[in-house]
Design a protein that fits this description.
The structure is a homodimer of 349-residue chains. Chain A is built from 13 helices and ten strands. Chain A folds into three domains: 2-79, Winged helix-like DNA-binding domain superfamily/Winged helix DNA-binding domain (Arc Repressor Mutant, subunit A, Orthogonal Bundle), CATH 1.10.10; 87-129 and 230-348, GAF domain (Beta-Lactamase); 135-227, 2-Layer Sandwich (Enolase-like, domain 1), CATH 3.30.390. Chain A is elongated. Chain A has helices at residues 2-21, 27-34, 40-52, 69-79, 87-99, 104-119, 172-186, 196-200, 210-227, 239-242, 249-260, 262-275, 326-348; strands spanning 56-57, 66-67, 122-126, 135-144, 147-154, 159-165, 232-235, 284-287, 299-308, 312-321. By secondary structure, chain A is an alpha+beta fold. In chain A, the strands form three sheets. A five-stranded antiparallel beta sheet of chain A has the order 7-3-10-9-8, sandwiched between helices. The first copy, chain A, has a three-stranded antiparallel beta sheet with strand order 4-5-6. The A-B interface holds A 102-103, 137, 139, 141, 143-144, 146-147, 149, 151, 153, 157, 159, 161-165, 222, 235-238, 241-242, 247, 249, 252-253, 256-257, 259-260, 349 and B 102-103, 137, 139, 141, 143-144, 146-147, 149, 151, 153, 157, 159, 161-165, 222, 235-238, 241-242, 247, 249, 252-253, 256-257, 259-260, 349. The structure holds a DNA duplex (30 and 30 nucleotides).
Chain lengths: 349, 349
DNA sequence: AATTAGCACTCGAACCCTCTGAGTGCCAAG
DNA sequence: CTTGGCACTCAGAGGGTTCGAGTGCTAATT
C-alpha cells in the first residue's frame, strides 16, 4: 500500500536526519530535506501513526520526533541500504592494517585501533575462542632449575606458552620424558576436553616419583587452561566524549565505567555470539535497551566474526551511540574483518 | 621567623582545604577550620604575600585562593607529611595483589587495577625496561615446517618468546645448529648491544646455505628486538570523569584523548625517569604545567620504580588531578610497589 | 479515505535582570 | 606587626519574559 510505503520512507528519513543532525526532526524539516510530495500535515499524520506503532517518540511535547529502539531496529532490519566504502576509505584501512607484518596479536590490536579511528567510536576486538581447538603439540622446556616453559601448538597454527615452576631437582631428561608422554596422549584433543584426570592418566610407567610428577602435571594443566583465555581489546573510549549523545557527564561516566570492565563486555559478546543464528559473516546488532549492560542504554553494539583457520573464530565490532550511521559502520567493520581474515591466512601461511 | 613560618602554615592549610573541598578557600574559612591565633585580616595579608610569591592565586577577584602549580610544588617538597596507610587499607591492597599467583604480567596488570581502585584515579604500570638485561639463553624451537618459536631467557629470570617464520625445508637439526651457535656467541650480552651484525658473525663453519641462514638470523633478530618492548597499562581512566576537576567536558575530552595514546605517556615517563636524580625508591612528582603533555595541565603525575632482580626495573604510578591528596597517594603507591617487589622475588624464586 | 490548510496550544531554550554574599584590598588605629 | 572597619567586586542563583519550532485537531477539499 502506498501510504504504508510512505510511512516507512518517513521512518527512514527520520532516522537518517536524526543520525546526522542529532536533533529531533519535525514535519517541516522533513518536507524540506526529503522532497516528500505531500504536505507537512500529512506527514504529521504519518508520524502520529508511527508513534502509535512504537517506532518513533517525542522527547517532549513541543519537539520533533526521534526514533525509538524499535524504530532503529526496523530501520536496521528492513530499511537501511548498505553502501560500499569509497576507494579512499578502503585504501586508508588497508594501509593501516598492512603496516603490521607478522604477529597475530599485533594484528588484532592494530585492527582495533584502525576500527576505532575510522568509525570515531569504540572498537572491540576479541581474541579467538580457542577452547574447542585441538592441542597438536606440547613441549616442556627447561629454562633453569625449577622453571620450565610450556609450549603448546594448537590447531590453525596458534602457539601459546607459559612459564611454570617445577621441582628444583627435576632433570631436563625427566622433563622431556613427561613432556613426550603428555604430548602423545593428548595429541589432537580439544583444549576444553582436557582435564586434570586426562593429564594424570597420560603418564604411565615412569620412574619419576609421584609427587614430582603430579606437580609438573598440575602446572602443565594450568598452562593449558590458560591457553584458551579470551582477551578483549576495547579502544577509543575517549571518542565517546566527543559525541553529543554523551555530553551529559552522568551518561558518559556510566558508559565508560561499564566499558572499563572489559570482562563484562567480553562476557556479553560471548553470550550474544552463542545465540547467533546466521552464518559467520552476518552481523550481530544490538540496539539500546536490547543491550543488557548498565550504561549502554543509549548505545548500539555491532559485532561480527573473523576466522582463524576453519573452525576457530573471534569477534570484532564496534560500540557506539544508537544514533549512528549503521550502514557506514557495518561496511567499515566488514572491510576490516575481510582484511583480518586475509592477513591471518598469510601469517599462518 | 615566626611570620614566615605562619605563611607556610597558611599555604599548607590552603592546599589541605582546597584538596578536600575543591573550593577556593578564603581567609574566614581558614580561621574557622584551622584555629589560627590571629585575625582574618592578618591572614589576608599573608595570603596577599603568598600570592606575590606566586604560590597561590585567585580564580577571580571575589573568590578565595587556590594553590598555584608552584604552591603545590612547595607543599609537596617541604610541607606535606606522609602518613602511613591504615591497617585496613594495607590489608585490602595485600589481599588483592596476593590473589594473582604466578605470572609476572598478570601481577602488573593486577597491581594496576588495585592502584586505580584504591586511589580512584588513573594508574600507570610499565613493564620492566629490559634493554639492558642480558640474554642468558636463546632457543629456536621447530613448531611446524616453516615456523619456529624463539625462546629467550633474560637475566633476572624473565622469559620472552616470539613465533617466527623460517624457510619451509629447514630441518629441526639445522635449526638446532643455528640456535646453539647463536646462543653460545650471544650469551650474557645485553639486549641493546645485539645487532644484526653481531648475529650474522655468530654462526660460522656451517653447511647451511647463506640465504637460509640469513633469513633465520634476521627473524631471530626481530624477536630479540621485540623482547625489550615496553608495554604500558593505564587503568581507571573513567575515574577521572567522577572528579569535579574534569566536569568540564572539554578538559575531560582532552585528558582522555591524550591518555589513549599510551605510547605518549610511556615515552614521557621514560623521559622523566632518565632525568631522575634520587635513588630507586624516590618518587617522581610532576605537577600541572610541569607535565609536557597536552590535556594534563590540571593533572599530576606520581611515579616510582619497582625492581625485577638487581638491575632491571619498571615504573608504577598514578595520574590524577593536581588537586589530590599527595600524601595518601604516595603511601598507596609505595605500598603497592613494596608488594610488587616482594611478589616478583617470589615468582622468580 | 486520504490530503490539506488553518489555528490554538505547548514548552524548552535563550535572554535579561536583580539580588546576594563570600571574599577582597586598603586604611588608620592599636 | 596586627586588627577592626569599610567600600568594592563579581560569580552564581533565582525569577520572569519572550521566542519559535513543533504538535494535534478540525473542517474543508479532492
Amino acid at each position: 500500500m502506498a501510504a504504508n510505503d510512505r510511512k516507512m520512507q518517513v521512518l527512514q528519513a527520520i532516522v537518517d536526519d536524526y543520525v546526522t543532525t542529532n536533533e529531533p526532526v519535525g514535519s517541516k524539516a522533513l518536507i524540506e530535506r526529503h522532497k516528500f510530495p505531500v504536505s507537512s500535515a500529512t506527514l504529521r499524520n504519518d508520524m502520529a501513526e508511527l508513534e502509535r506503532m512504537g517506532l518513533i517518540e517525542k522527547p517532549h511535547t513541543s519537539a520533533g520526533r526521534i526514533p525509538s529502539d524499535r524504530g532503529y531496529r526496523e530501520y536496521v532490519d528492513s530499511l537501511m541500504k548498505i553502501d560500499e566504502l569509497s576507494m579512499a576509505e578502503r585504501e586508508e584501512i588497508s594501509k593501516r592494517i598492512d603496516e603490521c607484518v607478522d604477529e597475530a596479536g599485533d594484528l588484532l590490536k592494530n585492527a582495533s585501533s584502525v576500527l576505532s579511528e575510522a568509525t570515531g567510536m569504540v572498537s572491540l576486538v576479541m581474541t579467538p575462542r580457542l577452547a574447542g581447538s585441538a592441542l597438536l603439540q606440547l613441549k616442556l622446556l627447561m629454562i633453569e632449575p625449577g622453571k620450565a616453559l610450556v609450549v603448546m601448538v594448537l590447531s590453525a597454527g596458534v602457539v601459546k606458552d607459559k612459564v611454570v615452576r617445577i621441582p628444583n631437582f627435576l632433570t631436563p631428561e625427566q622433563l622431556k620424558e613427561i613432556s613426550d608422554s603428555v604430548e602423545k596422549s593428548l595429541n589432537g584433543k580439544p583444549l576444553d576436553e582436557i582435564t586434570l584426570i586426562t593429564l594424570a592418566t597420560s603418564v604411565k610407567e615412569t620412574k619419576i616419583p609421584d609427587t614430582l610428577l603430579n606437580q609438573v602435571l598440575y602446572e602443565t594443566y594450568t598452562a593449558i587452561k590458560q591457553a584458551d583465555r579470551l582477551d578483549v581489546f576495547l579502544e577509543g573510549e575517549h571518542n565517546m566524549l566527543k559525541l553529543p549523545d554523551f555530553s551529559e557527564l552522568r551518561r558518559a561516566q556510566s558508559l565508560l565505567g561499564t566499558l572499563s570492565h572489559d570482562g563484562m563486555v567480553a562476557g556479553y559478546v560471548n553470550e550474544i555470539e552463542r545465540e547467533k543464528t546466521g552464518g559467520d559473516d552476518t552481523y550481530m546488532i544490538r540496539i539500546g535497551q536490547e543491550i543488557a549492560l548498565e550504561g549502554l542504554e543509549d548505545c548500539s553494539f555491532i559485532t561480527t566474526t573473523y576466522k582463524v583457520g576453519d573452525t576457530i573464530s573471534g569477534n570484532i565490532g564496534v560500540i557506539g551511540p544508537k544514533r549512528m550511521d549503521y550502514s557506514k559502520v557495518i561496511s567499515q567493520i566488514d572491510f576490516v574483518r575481510y582484511k583480518i581474515n586475509e592477513k591471518i591466512k598469510k601469517i599462518n601461511g
